[in-house]
Structures are given as C-alpha cells and as structure tokens.
User: What shape does this take?
Amino acid sequence: MIIHLPFFPLLALAALTGAAALQLRRRRRQNGQADAQEPDWSAPVLDEAADRDSPFHRWDARLKIASLFIYCFLVVSLQTLTWAAAALAISIAAVMASRIPWSRPLRRLAAMSGFLTMFLIVVPLTAPAVPGETLIVLDPFSSLILHGEGLRLATLVVVKACAIALLMEPLLATAPLAVTLQALAALRLPNAICQMILLAHRYIHVLGHEARRMQRSMRLRGFAPRTDLATLRAYGNFLGMLFVRSFDRTQRVFEAMQSRGYRGAFPTWTTFAATPADWAKGAFWIIMGIILLTMDRLNLC
Amino acid sequence: MHDVPAGHPLPPRGLPLFQIRDLAFAYPDGTQALRGVDLTIHHADRIALVGHNGSGKTTLIKHLNGLLHPQHGTVLYKGEPVSGDNADQLRQEVGILFQDPDDQLFCNTVYEDVAFGPMNQGLPQPLVDERVQEALLAVDLADHAYKPPHNLSYGQRKRAALAAVLAMNPLVLVLDEPTANLDPRQVRQFARLLERFAGTLICITHDILFLQGLCDRAVVLVQGRVHHDYAFADLVAHPASLREHGLDFSFRLSCCGDGHHHANPEPRPQPAPGSGATGHGGVPSSAEAASSRIKIRPGSSAEGGTEKKALIELRRCSYAYPDGTRALREVSLAVRHGDRLALIGENGAGKSTLAGVLLGTLAADGEILFAGQQLDARARRRLWRKVGIVFQDAADQLFCPTCWEEVAFGPQRLGLDRQEVDKRVREALATVQLSGYEQRVPLNMSGGERKRLAIAAVLAMQPELLILDEPTAGLDPRGEELLLAILGHLPLTMILITHDLFFINALTERTVVMHRGRILRDYRTDDFLADDHLEEAIGLGYVYRNECRRPAVSAR
Assistant: This one.
C-alpha cells in the first residue's frame, strides 16, 4: 500500500510544534524567575528527590537495582510495538508512583530526543524494502519514501528507549546516591568504581565550572572556533590545561581525604536488610517483565 | 565545643607535640622544598608560619599531618616517629584546612563531608551526629547540612571545610591561607572561630594583620629553611627583616597625617643605579612605588570639576541566572574615561555579574552604551575588543604552553600582523616586569608571576577599560607591592573588584558599593573610607586597615 502525505504542511506542523514547545519553555522559565525566592541551589543533582516517600523509596536498594535491571533487559527484548507501549505505560505509572517531579524524567527524555528524532527520520528512509509493507510518499518529493517497516522498527526502539529511560528515575532518584552506590557495591560492583562514581558526581560540577571559566576567558580574548589549525591548537591547549588542572586537583583531593583519616573506603553506617515486602516488589517486577516478554513472543494483543 | 579539644591524649608534660630535626624534602622534579628544618612545637602554641610563595610552608605542614614522609631527618609526634599506625593516629589529631575548599569537600552533602572525619575516627553514630551539628552551628551553616557543596558560595564552602576539620576535635589545627578570597565579614567570622580554638594553631597566610592577635609565635621560612623563630611581635617589629624575606606588609601602613613620626621608622632600601630595580616600560620598581606611598591614584575625576564623557554606561540593567537567582536589579552605572573605580560588596552581591555584563558575556535586560553608542546584542558580544578582565584565579586565564603564546593569543585574534603582535607582547611583558620570560611555561611560574602574566595577556590587547577581579588573591606582600606599582601606573580606565581596602585607597578615586544586586552607594573613595554606616546598613564589616601605625607600635 502507498500513502501520499504532503511534506510541507507536515514540516510546518513540526516547526509549529517545536516553536510552541520553545515558547512554553521560555514562559515557564520567566515565570520561574519571577516566582523565585532567591533559591539556594542552581544545578540539578542525581538524588534530589531522595527524601520523598514512595514504595520505591522504601524498597531495599540492592533488590531495587537488581530486579529493575533484570526487568529492563526483558523490556529491551520486546519485539512488538503493542507490548513495548505497554512497557512504556508501566514506566509512566512507576514514575507517578515514585512521586518524582515530572520535570526530571522529562529532562532526561529531552536529552535523548535529538538522537531519537534522528533515528525516527533516518531508519524509515533507509530501511530495506519488505514485500507487502506500507510505503509513505512525501509529496511533492516522490523520491522521499518512508518504509512502513522501518518506521515501525524505529518507533519500537524509541518507545523501548523511553520506557527504560523513564524507569531510571525510580531506580536512581529514590535513594541518596551514596546508598545506591553502597547497594551496587553489595551487588559486587568493585568498590573502587563505586568511589569513583561518587567523587565524579561531586567533581563534575567543579570541573564544569573550571572549563566554563577557561572558555569564557578564551572568548574574551577573541577566540571564536573556526575550522582551522589555530582553533585545533587552542582546543588542544585548553583540553591539556584542563587535564593538568584535574590531575593536580585529584592529588589535592586525595591528600585532603587522607588527612581526614581515609584508608581506602568511605565510612558508612548503611546496612541493608531485605524484608519480605522488598522481595515481593522484586518478584513483581521480574514477573511483570516475563509476562510482557511472553505476551510479546506469543504475539497476543 | 572547640574550646578544649577533647578525646585525644596530650603528650606527657614537658614533651613537645612535634620535634622536627634536620628535615629535608625534594619533589620528584628535583625542587628542593625543605632543607635542614629544625622546629619544636608544643601543645597550645599559636604559630604563624610565614614566608614568600615557594618557601616550603605547605610542604612542611604536609609532614605534620603524615601526608609526606621525611626523605631526610626526623619528624617526631609525641616522641614517636611518624610512620605506619602512628601516621594514622596523627591524621586523627592534626587537622588541615586546605586553601581551596573544593579540595576538601568531596562528598555529596555538607553533612557527609563534616561527618567523614569523625566516622573515620570510629565514633558511634550519635556522637558523630552531635559533632557534625556542633561544628556546623559554630560556622553558621546548620541550615545547609544537606546541601551539595557545589551549591554553596565560596565563603560558605570555606566555612564548611573548617567545620569538617573542627568536627574531628583536632589537637592541632593547621590552616593554609584561611582568609583568601573572603569578604571582611567572613574574615572576622574566621578570626572569632580561631580565637576560641584552644589547641595548637599553625596558620599559613600572607595576611599578617589577620595573624596579629591570633598567633604569638612566628616561624619564617626562606628557601626551605627556618630563617627566624621568634615572638610574633618581633616579626612585625623588624620591617627590614620582613622586607628581606618578601614579607613586608608595611607598605600597607601609612601615617594618618597627624605627625606620627614612627609610622615608617625605617627607610626603605633604594635601588642602586643600574641595578635593574627600576621597572620596565615606565613602571617604577616596587621599592619606588612604595616610597611614593599609598595614594598613587591619579587626580580624582570626582574632584576634577570638568565632567568627563562616559566610556561605558549601564541603564537600568537587570540580570537573572537561569535558576532564577536575580544577580542584578535595575543597575545604572556610568564609568567615565580615566575613571578608577572600586566595586565592592559582600560575596554574592552581584559584582562579578556586573563585570560579566560590562564584558558582554552576560546578556542583561536594559541599555548598555559604549562611548555614547547604544549597543545591540551583536555589539555587546564584541565588547571584548574594548574591555579586558583579569580574573581572580590566573589559572582560568592561562592555557598556552609559553608566555609568548599566552600574551600573543589576544592580539592574534584581533588580526594584527606578526610584527605588531611581537611588539605588543614585548611591551606588555615589560610593563608587568616579565621581560625575558617569553619561553617560560606559565604553569611552572609562581602565583605572583602568573597574575602579572594574566595582566600582560590583557594589556597586549590594549583595552580601553580594564577590570581586575580580586587582583591580590593569593599574592605574598612582595607580589602585592609589585602589583600595586604596576597597576598604579597603567594609563587606563580601571574597575577594581576587591575586598582589599588598601588597594582601593591606593588605586581608586571612586567607590561603588553593591548589595544584593543593587548599587547601594556610588561616591568618592575618600567618602567611602570615612563611611561608618556600611556595616550597619549591609553588614559588610569593612575595617579600614590603612590606619596609622600607632596601634601596632603601642601593641609592641
């Protein structure tokens, strides 16, 4: 079957939608500025919603990570759009149940949106033709043919990606980062990696500030990136200096840790004790994943 | 809580806390940081450890905490050599406050950071909780316990780092430049906290005036050796000796004009003819500047009578950061040709934001005029050609492998030919007294040299307006004096963002006071210095330190 769609009205619709989204965002930001009571903090952090209360917050972090991790693998294995959509609905319900502000998961999705949009455009255009599939022709560009099977495949990947990205919020933002990392250590992730993640989360902000200050000073001395050797040289110097400064800081931070008694491990009082309810929640998610996969494979819809 | 450090045993009566004998240490690159250091430290000593940049102070305190081990000589703590288990014990009892609080706050909340030390001491949870609460209360951060450190202001981070050390109830407190980059109110807060600390105090700072009243003993390090070890009063009583070691802060002190003949009791050494002490590029040496004394600012524009044209003007400019923080609120300011203006205010008052707007890096609401022309968004982005800034941390500004490339970076971007670039680089380096440094690596230079190099990198672009953000941060007195001489003779319109009232008095004729994003006062510097109501109005707590030297003399 061949469907003809007008390209320019579609493009105009997409542009209008984008413009409306930008306008909405700008308005919200302005309102935010007007309402702001000199907030104490500026940057989002990974566990800012960790002090709320929900079934996810009350869940043993080890079981939460292990079972949601398995569930995510089962979702990735889905092959039909219907059951992938069901997984997306479950993820939305999970975000709502975790009582996390929607701005966070939406920001996460927005970060992925560029790649996913490109995926949605490129795959339908480049997918191999399958006998009997629907073709969409964008008039007046008759050479622009979207393959129905390619569109289905791209949509499936996008829906699964969104389902899993949404689930990252209940997984990561419902316990303090330190507790999440201790749970990962309890699940046999090497302690050194856990400590590196913890320190990286703290120092990514410091490093970001340093990089921004250096970039600003370059800009104030007339640096404007071009496609020439001088630009490459300037970037090389910039990255080299950033690396040297980071290396020096690493040394100083390690000394500061040692001077306060660090002997290879972060001290903690967190102890994990899984209750029957925790095990039940874990079982629920794994069974849910198995049901989704079974229905998907049996093509029941 | 910190009046008497509890929980750590004191050494037996008569036994010193530290005995350092013939200590030597060299870094892997061959730099000999310490040579034959002999030092004895008793419980409750209050020591000012001073010396110019690179004299070995930081290396020495790292030995006191077991972070470095002696390559030669011995370090005894309570009579035992520092090694193995003893080093672990040492770290529980000797707390160091490092210069950069970001090095010391490595956890994800202030609470975790402050609890880190007590938890490593093996204390039970209730006691750790108690220690954390008390330490945060002492530094006035109890309300910020669960905030991520990167969301605190610099001053708050500095205090949080101090709380992290105090929570361990250390027997010995070592402070490395505790007051660097703090506003006067926070400096006083630090001083009050340290006055209450009854253990052994070792303080590294170039701020001799901060040390006065806090320390009773001074140890002067010169090229890795203990050059003097005497009463603190003796340190300040010998300007000639201070000058010899690059510690002479007395250029900051001048007579009030009431005929106190002892204000400068000892004449400064004059440079010998042809000794090279005279500055390049028409800038006198530091000694000459010092002898010319205090007010090296040009004639005040406010006093001049003739109204000058505004070089840059802001009209009702406001700026809010993306998180909603309103950093500027309807600010109007005119900077005239030749103005030398001081911009002051507490940390977070909006000074740096205002500088960002003047530089065109922050797009503020409101009008900006340059030389009478209103600037649109595109013209604002090109303000870098007219306005230069020297940042607080010179490291932010230096990214090239040699000094020549560093200074040439801006002129090259202006599209100048090779000869002109070379000429400007040579002139700029000469102006900041760095001639001959063309092939030196900026990374390996001292703090003072890097600061001057950053200034040269801006001067080479020949800006019409120069903004200096805390130019004296991290400099030793010798570096400060040289900087004063250089800045005092730059024929430029200048905005000085600083808490250093001596530099304000010496270099500027107009002072703008900011508070919570607004301009609170805009008056002559002399009026500002005579204004007793600032502290009352905004709690700035400036203490004008260029008082007549009489109090210091009588204190002796």
